[in-house]
Design goal:
Elements lengths: L2 H14 L6 H12 L7 H18 L1 H10 L5 H27 L1 H7 L3 H18 L11 H13 L7 H11 L4 H24 L9 H27 L5 H20 L9
Helix pairs in contact: 1-2, 1-3, 1-11, 2-7, 3-10, 3-11, 4-5, 5-8, 5-10, 7-9, 7-12, 8-9, 9-10
Length: about 270
């Protein structure tokens, strides 16, 4: 993998991990257009997800610090609230963990299929458009809402389904405030991001990517990720999340047309 390819993948990951256009889907399509074989990219995917995982910690470090600190507070009410929120993050992470571990082979196969990524980008567009139907600015989290958000996070394991887009969209639709929708979505993503990294790290048998390329991909995914995350949170607060739906729909449709015309699927062309 060339240094420029690593930088481009780092930029793609940094933007699309947080902007609701599906990082996994774009990485699959990026590999397609950059000529990178999917099986050669496992190490880089782990490194890129590490970069964006750290980006979340940088942006939300105050929230994370408060949750940790308040979990040991001598004040009974403060401690219980923090522990409840922590438990919600764990509960919300369970569906993605079940799907990620139980259907790993199917997920791996999907990462080799750009048709799925392109089609699911169109589904992501629908999520984002629907999110504009209800922008409640007062609603709070409840256990049932957390479970619903966690289920939608599990759907996002499919490449092309945006994790941030689907979790924030469903949170808005079930009445969670804009600010809390963005906050909980990304705190919930931490176990998923690092868990996925560990899961795929177990598949690494050899490292064929240079240390320089890995470092470049990591740095670009981290820096671009911080900027993208702050940008997205601004869009969520303004109730403009659906803007990204137009992009997802366009990329999905254009890619499907490209694949059909230039790289026809064996399903449609058995010969």
């Amino acid at each position: 993998m060339e240094l420029l390819q690593s930088i481009l993948l780092g930029i793609i990951q940094g933007i699309t991990e947080f902007i609701p256009v599906s990082s996994s889907g774009h990485l699959v399509l990026g590999q397609l257009f950059l000529g990178i074989e999917p099986h050669e990219n496992i190490v880089m995917e782990v490194v890129l997800h590490l970069g964006t995982g750290i980006a979340i910690i940088i942006v939300f470090w105050k929230d994370i610090l408060h949750l940790v600190k308040n979990s040991f507070s001598p004040d009974h009410q403060i401690r219980n609230e923090a522990l409840k929120y922590n438990s919600w993050i764990i509960i919300g992470s369970i569906p993605a963990a079940i799907v990620g571990i139980g259907f790993k082979d199917t997920i791996d196969a999907n990462f080799s299929n750009p048709y799925i990524s392109a089609s699911m980008l169109i589904v992501t567009a629908l999520f984002l458009f629907f999110s504009s139907m209800r922008n409640n600015t007062e609603g709070k989290l409840t256990l049932y809402k957390v479970i619903a958000i966690g289920i939608f996070q599990a759907f996002a394991i499919t490449p092309g389904i945006s994790r941030s887009g689907s979790t924030i969209a469903i949170a808005l639709l079930i009445g969670v405030s804009r600010k809390e929708s963005g906050r909980f979505s990304f705190l919930l993503s931490l176990p998923a991001v690092f868990g996925a990294g560990l899961l795929y790290a177990s598949d690494i048998t050899e490292i064929t990517v240079s240390a320089t390329s890995l470092f470049a991909g990591f740095i670009f995914s981290l820096v671009v990720g911080v900027l993208s995350l702050k940008l997205l949170l601004n869009f969520v607060r303004r109730g403009k999340l659906y803007y990204f739906g137009y992009y997802c729909a366009a990329v999905g449709v254009i890619t499907l047309i490209y694949l059909t015309v230039f790289t026809p699927s064996p399903i449609f062309n058995p010969s």
